[in-house]
Automatic annotation (TrEMBL):
<keyword id="KW-1133">Transmembrane helix</keyword>
<keyword id="KW-0812">Transmembrane</keyword>
<feature type="transmembrane region" description="Helical">
    <location>
        <begin position="12"/>
        <end position="30"/>
    </location>
</feature>
<feature type="transmembrane region" description="Helical">
    <location>
        <begin position="229"/>
        <end position="251"/>
    </location>
</feature>
<feature type="transmembrane region" description="Helical">
    <location>
        <begin position="146"/>
        <end position="170"/>
    </location>
</feature>
<feature type="transmembrane region" description="Helical">
    <location>
        <begin position="309"/>
        <end position="329"/>
    </location>
</feature>
<feature type="transmembrane region" description="Helical">
    <location>
        <begin position="119"/>
        <end position="139"/>
    </location>
</feature>
<dbReference type="InterPro" id="IPR038728">
    <property type="entry name" value="YkvI-like"/>
</dbReference>
<protein>
    <submittedName>
        <fullName>Uncharacterized membrane protein YkvI</fullName>
    </submittedName>
</protein>
<keyword id="KW-0472">Membrane</keyword>
<feature type="transmembrane region" description="Helical">
    <location>
        <begin position="195"/>
        <end position="217"/>
    </location>
</feature>
<feature type="transmembrane region" description="Helical">
    <location>
        <begin position="90"/>
        <end position="113"/>
    </location>
</feature>
<feature type="transmembrane region" description="Helical">
    <location>
        <begin position="335"/>
        <end position="353"/>
    </location>
</feature>
<feature type="transmembrane region" description="Helical">
    <location>
        <begin position="271"/>
        <end position="297"/>
    </location>
</feature>
<feature type="transmembrane region" description="Helical">
    <location>
        <begin position="45"/>
        <end position="63"/>
    </location>
</feature>
């Protein structure tokens, strides 16, 4: 039947957009994966399975709800699950969080440009910010098309790092354990002392920063089946990239400890030319994620492609440039990201409760349409 058909092009574009959205400066520079997974050694690879389970389940649900409810504003999903009062709190928290991560990612872009090209961090931060602003002004639809193409490119680059690490690993299986011992000896700071909890926390972090975006992707799909497929493909692909990066960081542990941008150090070890290419593409990757966060933040206050939207975008970009150019990137990741993860746990509790209520009502033949709360929040 037509309602069950899946458009492969749409699946690839939107799943690519999900990957591009999640692979921001924290991931592209290697800091997120290093602090959430690599610091746990080989157990960090197992932790990715915990991440996959949590994130896949939540993403499937959000994409499905986005497709079925067609919210006027994707932030209304918080009212849908949490009610008006708590939902409004989560809306504002999500907006503030997205903007804070926007600033963190600007800092990551500046750190990348500074590490490889020697250009002052504030100059690099300003460059990324201006690119993001120009893209945001184009609107959400154009943004998805742009980052939908960039997502697979990011995955390919990370895969190259992983393959380059796996080749020597096949000859010397002990490289992973050697990297793990080097990490313990260096005393690097991890997000959590428990490897399983680190994997779960990262899933909660990714969820909290992407709820409205995932809802928007689901709403843009042709039907529920396509929305679910987009969610699965996007998260499974992203998880594969995490695994590849953990392996690359463990194998190259001695050369990345203390580095603001671990992936750039690994790429440079493979080849100076590849390091140069990788530095440029990291900047592109950061730009796409920063653009997405800026759009999702401003959409709370105005409809895209309007004068109000453009004015707010300019103001928030200028503020982000000022703070992103002076804040220490690695310390921001270690403080801000775990906090976001913990807040998502409560939201998942609301999601589970709501979905169980809907299933029980459906089982007893009652109506599952509950749009009053969402309408009241408009």
């Amino acid at each position: 039947m037509e309602k069950d058909t899946i458009n492969l092009k749409s699946v690839l574009m939107f799943s690519g957009a999900i990957c591009a959205y999640l692979i921001g400066s924290g991931f592209a520079t290697g800091q997120e994966v290093f602090q959430f997974f690599t610091t746990s050694g080989t157990k960090g690879i197992i932790a990715t399975l915990i991440f996959l389970f949590i994130m896949c389940t939540a993403t499937l649900t959000l994409c499905k709800v986005g497709q079925k409810e067609k919210f006027e504003n994707p932030y209304y999903v918080f009212n849908y699950y949490c009610g008006k009062t708590v939902g409004d709190i989560y809306i504002w928290y999500s907006v503030i969080l997205n903007y804070c991560i926007f600033v963190v990612m600007l800092a990551g872009g500046g750190a990348t440009i500074n590490q490889y090209f020697g250009i002052p961090t504030y100059v690099g931060t300003g460059f990324i910010a201006i690119l993001a602003l120009g893209t945001a002004i184009l609107g959400m639809e154009k943004l998805v098309k742009i980052i939908g193409v960039l997502g697979p490119i990011k995955i390919i680059l990370v895969t190259i790092l992983g393959i380059a690490a796996i080749i020597p690993l096949l000859k010397q299986p002990g490289l992973l354990s050697q990297g793990e011992m080097a990490l313990h000896a260096s005393g690097v700071k991890a997000v959590s002392s428990n490897w399983a909890w680190s994997g779960a926390l990262y899933a909660f972090l990714c969820l909290m920063m992407s709820v409205p975006f995932l809802v928007n992707c689901g709403a843009s799909a042709k039907n529920v089946k396509e929305a679910k497929t987009i969610g699965i493909v996007g998260i499974v692909t992203f998880t594969g990239a995490i695994v590849m990066l953990v392996i690359a960081e463990l194998v190259n542990c001695s050369s990345i400890i203390g580095k603001e941008v671990p992936t750039l150090a690994i790429a440079s070890n493979i080849s100076p030319i590849f390091g140069t290419i990788f530095s440029i593409l990291i900047i592109v990757a950061i730009y796409s994620a920063v653009s997405s966060l800026l759009v999702m933040t401003v959409r709370k206050f105005a409809v895209d492609k309007t004068k109000q939207f453009n004015n707010i975008s300019v103001v928030l970009t200028i503020v982000g440039m000022l703070f992103g150019g002076i804040l220490p990137f690695n310390k921001l990741v270690n403080i801000l990201y775990p906090l976001a993860g913990y807040s998502a746990i409560v939201f998942i509790g609301f999601m589970i409760y709501k979905e169980l209520r809907i299933k029980l009502k459906s089982k007893h033949g009652e109506s599952t349409v509950e749009s009053t709360i969402v309408k009241e929040s408009k």
